[in-house]
Design goal:
single chain, alpha+beta, NADH Oxidase, Multidrug-efflux Transporter 1 Regulator Bmrr, Chain A, eight-stranded antiparallel sheet, four-stranded antiparallel sheet, elongated
């Protein structure tokens, strides 16, 4: 069996035959865990192999906990019944160490995956168990290691079932997008006419401003700039600090002014109910927008490249294509 075959064929087994598991097979499963990599080579895992009546007693402790806590959703009772069937239970302990706990548990997870794959290659079935967490104190005491952490357990035996693989997400849903590569654009001061509001207008105020701007667009359409096709030359969601100095929104980007509108000439006079802003000249880093995570990705890029905002972010939408871009000012002209 190749490694890829073991990975693809491994299943979580919850029904076992009563046939005992030879000691040499159990040792090979544990040997594969011993060879696993670990953070700083700490090798934090310690294994206790439990069979027979003692295994059933540990399973009963998990059942007792489930019956005593019917108000807490858990699969502790179900897993205890699986343990009762399995000829072998392997408890996985580690020393208590708050500083290294996360790293040690990650390392133990790798070791337990080695165990699962080796069990499958040996013709055995295995169930990786974390439901021990509910009755952990009682289990540690009953096992004889009350001062160690019980990281998990594994039920081991010959499988009495051959379940299909449970659904897995496609790979494309698991791949995070690469941080966007922005372009630089030097943009002199420009004017935007639109509907103005602020975060003090309550949740959803930006959407309401755009709805108002679109509903009344005919009032400003003759006053704005147009491209060669007669479309608005620039549709802008402009932002400014509350003092109108075009500093970034305050209080973690949660407090500021917003203007929903379109680019216009310097001498255009806004009708009643409309406002005109002059956005100062900046050098911008321009990132693609339109996704919920776009803003945080852009900020991460700036931090990672030692850059900081010197003004408020501005959003631009191409009227022809609908493409949205975010303008982050990094230098004031």
């Amino acid at each position: 069996m190749t490694l890829q075959q073991a990975i693809a064929g491994r299943r979580s087994i919850r029904r076992f035959l009563p046939t005992d598991v030879p000691e040499d097979k159990v040792l090979r499963v544990l040997e594969s865990a011993r060879l696993c990599q670990s953070a700083k080579n700490r090798q934090p895992w310690r294994f206790l192999v439990v069979r027979g009546e003692r295994r059933r007693q540990l399973a009963q402790l998990m059942l007792d906990w489930a019956e005593a806590h019917p108000d807490i959703p858990s699969s502790s009772g179900y897993t205890a019944r699986v343990i009762r069937q399995a000829p072998v239970l392997i408890l996985v302990f580690c020393e208590k160490d708050d500083m290294w706990r996360d790293a040690d548990y990650l390392s133990i997870g790798g070791a337990m995956e080695h165990m699962c794959l080796t069990a499958h290659a040996e013709g055995l079935g295995a169930l990786w168990i974390r439901d021990t967490v509910y009755a952990e104190v009682a289990l540690r005491q009953a096992a004889g290691y009350p001062d160690m952490d019980l990281a998990g357990a594994m039920a081991l035996g010959y499988p009495a079932e051959n379940p299909p693989m449970r659904p897995r997400l496609p790979l494309e849903e698991l791949l995070l997008p690469a941080p966007p590569e922005p372009r630089r654009e030097v943009r002199p001061a420009f004017w935007v006419m639109g509907r103005e509001g602020s975060t003090e207008d309550g949740e959803g105020f930006v959407r309401r401003l755009w709805d108002e701007a679109q509903a009344g667009f005919a009032e400003i359409e003759p006053l704005i700039l147009h491209d060669a096709s007669g479309r608005p030359a620039g549709v802008w969601g402009c932002m400014s600090s509350m003092d109108r100095r075009f500093a970034p929104w305050e209080e973690g980007f949660t407090r500021g002014l917003y203007l929903a509108g379109a680019e216009c000439p310097a001498d255009a006079q806004p009708p009643s109910g409309w406002t005109k802003w002059q956005v100062p000249g900046f050098e911008y880093l321009v990132f693609p927008g339109g996704r919920p995570e776009a803003f945080s990705l852009a900020l991460a890029y700036l931090r990672g490249n030692g850059l900081s905002l010197c003004g408020a972010q501005q959003d631009h939408t191409d009227a022809a294509t609908g493409q949205n871009e975010m303008y982050f000012p990094v230098r004031r002209l």
